[in-house]
Amino acid sequence: MSREGRDKKNKSEASTRSHTQARSSSDIFKTILLVVIVGSLAWFYKAIQPPPTGTVGSTGGASVTSPRIKLRDGRQLAYKEFGFPRDEAKFKIIYIHGFDSCMLDSPFPQFLSQALVEELRIYTVSFDRPGYGESDPDPNRSPRSIALDIEELADGLGLGPNFYVVGLSMGGEITWTCLKYIPHRLAGAALLGPVINYWWRNLPRDITREALSLTSPADQWALRVAHHAPSLTYWWNTQKWFPFSNVIAGNKVIFSRQDMEVVSKLGGFSPNLAYIRQQGEYESIHRDLKVGFSRWEFDPLDLQDPFPNNNGSVHLWHGDEDRFVPVKLQRYIASKLPWIHYHELSGSGYLLPYVEGLTDKITKSLLVGEEEST
Question: Which strand (E) or helix (H) includes residue 12?
């Protein structure tokens, strides 16, 4: 072979080795990259999974200390009764607690006057919503399911064909689901500072954008995550990069002047916090966020008057200094649902039923009519 031929052969072999080494390095890099990606995805998937729930009454879980009603699917709802004896009462009210709260936070025992209880023979019952306190979690929970839980609770306690519901904050949001799914069981309803899902389809986008902008950046972010990426709510909250929600943290920025006065009198905003979250934050507050701000299967603005024969009434109470839910949203809803009795309280904030005298006023308005409550 000539020298020129040998040089060409050597160059060819060197080129082949160079390309082989390059391909080998590229393949190794791709393999490493794939391993990193798969490992990262596996880590992230594991990170967003909720921790095991310490179900009440189970091994390792909290003890059962309250009476409970067993539902059709086997879950248990814990409840607490107040006021006039159930079998002798004229008016029967189911209280629906708000976000990060429980049945022990009902305002009726402390703030509904005994004189009014005796005069009108008022019975009230509060209950721990699924995943809170001593009520079992509901992995299939939806806006509809909690309304059906309330109906089962009423039947289990023998409250009769009709009863009243009163809901505060997110409990007020749930009251909308009662008006949708069990209106035939209601004698009346009161929504106290009800939480609004900013993504109900009939709410104008310009109004919801403006209302959302009035809340703190942390709370805006929390609500958007709950709606657009609900599986991330728990994980994001645990990262502690910045406050996920001022509501969850109980920061004073969310309270109005009147709210701060109420909190001071109560000795704190959430005295039952350990009990509230004893089954874990995921099953209590984070599932609440996921359901409350999900894509609902109905819009409350489509609801018809549940009492066309004036055999009951629906009342919506809101403080114009509420920093949880901007009052503009409630004004719009009240304007679109003329059958709602709308009460806007000047200078009031979020903690309406804990203000001296207001629980009596709210209750009388619901049970015996607006004109008698003034």
Answer: helix 3-47
